[in-house]
Siroheme synthase
Amino acid sequence: MDYLPIFCQLQRKACLLVGGGEVAERKARLLLDAGACLTVNALQFNNQFHVWAELGQLTLVEGAFYADLLAEKWLVIAATDSAEVNALVYQSANQQRVFCNVVDDPKRASFIMPSIIDRSPIMVAVSSGGKAPVLARLLREKLEAILPQHLGKLANLAGSLRQRVKQQFASIGARRRFWEKLLAHDRLAQSLANEDTELATQQVEQLFAERQEEQGEVVLVGAGPGDAGLLTLKGLQQIQQADVVVYDRLVSDGIMALVRRDAERIFVGKRAGYHCVPQEQINQILLEQAQRGLRVVRLKGGDPFIFGRGGEELETLAEAGIPFSVVPGITAASGCSAYSGIPLTHRDHAQSVRLVTGHAKTDGELDWARLAAEHQTLVFYMGLNQAAVIQQQLITHGMAASMPIALIENGTSTRQRVIEGELAQLGTLAAQVTSPSLIVVGSVVSLRSKLNWFASRDIPPNLSKMA
Ligand code: SAH
């Protein structure tokens, strides 16, 4: 970040403007709008400056610039048409530690002026750090067009209601719901835009009279396998509206960075050396948070309904009558297959695909004879510890020992590693990767040599094969 954006409070603060022409006039207008106590220094002033001076809105100092003019000033803008004078102002300001902007010269500026969209008290500032002023202006125009004119009035209204909302609604959840309804109230927006205060007041009173449902809700959201770009739009909306986010180890940092900043984050995954929070306890956390009237997002790696125990968590909520919904995610098999160039089905290779847990509850749960059948692709989740068993069972049940296999570690992330081999090597190769990893078994793996696009971006294909 080259510049820190801040909004300065300049009411009645002494500021200096050097220059008396058209550009200076524009800057003077801004500083006066911000309530600054303005002194303007120039050899000559255009007419507007004299008008302002006569109205007592600013003080004129006619003549050459001198450093003492900076005494007691909070900031200075140099807007003369002389590069030397501007440079002198900048140098003197720096010596006296006064923030200085030289118009159209970002190199000589300890602050720069952004393009602004003024919907006071809502202010939007856009800057390109002096690199592309035209681009910043274009952005400003776009924002001007999409930010409704009544936005400022809405913000002022919200400000005037804050205390009352706090008093009337005890829970954070109820307050949030009130604000969300108020801010998305189309008819209220219309009344504000029309300056129909009477109608606006009625509409606000109606909102206060409505009971803000105290009950919270839980949204089960699939975060996808790692790459934050694979989160769905719905998932993004949910994590940006959440009061609480309950997440575990498989949710990537990139996704967590998208969560609403002031949402509470509860980690329920396994940390090095510690066990996971037991499923029972996770169910309980979800229930308790929702019962506090909060909007809870249960964020899970991949898809919540594929080896995610999403169903179990929802059952508890359903029993307790807590409203819930589910946002699917891209499951590891889809993400990893795409990012490793291994299509899970292919007309010449596999007519079906099976997602299999390597972590079956008891022996005998998996039908190995069916798994070993031809023309299908097997994807094992949580299979690393069982890799040797998988290898042995599939071969015992008739699968060729030379069947291509791939292990995909940290799929879709920048740390993705793919190891290819044959079924007979599965147990040995599994020892070379760490969790989370998927095991793909099937002749589709051979397509990777042609279709691998992702690893080839950062590691040459021959090296990635050796990895
Ligand atoms: N609900 C998740 C799966 C959870 S089970 C989903 O739909 O993807 C956890 C297992 O998923 C891990 O043991 C691993 O086998 C697999 N997995 C999850 N993310 C992965 C990733 N980025 N790369 C490889 N395997 C992954």
